[in-house]
Specification:
Shape: rod-shaped
Structural class: mainly alpha
Largest sheet: none
Radius of gyration: 21 Å
Mean pLDDT: 86
Helix content: over 70%
Distance between the termini: 31 Å
Strand content: under 5%
Number of domains: 1
C-alpha cells in the first residue's frame, strides 16, 4: 500500500510541476474562449456603430446580447473545468 501511495504522489508532483497553460488541450480551450469573447465584442461594436449612425439596430443588439451572455456562461464553465470544478465549488 505504501508503494502505491508513493507512486501516486510522485505522479502528482510530475504533473503539478508543469504550468497549466503548457498542456495543449488547455491551450485549445483558452483559444476557443478567446475567440468567443472576441466574437461577442465585435458584435457589440457592430451594434453600437449602427446605433451611433442613427439606425435601428434591434437585430444587431439582440445578437450581441445573446452572444455575450452565451459566451459568459461558456467561459465560466470552461474556466471551472480547467481549474477543477470540485476545488472551485468548495472555495
Amino acid at each position: 500500500m505504501q508503494q502505491a501511495l508513493s507512486a501516486l504522489e510522485t505522479g502528482r508532483i510530475n504533473v503539478a510541476a508543469r504550468a497549466i497553460a503548457e498542456f495543449q488541450a488547455i491551450q485549445l480551450q483558452l483559444v476557443e474562449m478567446a475567440t468567443r469573447v472576441q466574437s461577442a465584442r465585435l458584435l457589440t461594436f457592430w451594434a453600437a456603430s449602427r446605433l451611433d449612425a442613427g439606425d435601428r439596430a434591434d437585430g444587431e443588439t439582440g445578437m450581441a446580447k445573446v452572444m455575450a451572455s452565451e459566451t459568459a456562461l461558456y467561459c465560466s464553465l470552461e474556466a471551472m473545468r480547467i481549474h477543477g470544478e470540485p476545488q472551485s465549488a468548495s472555495g
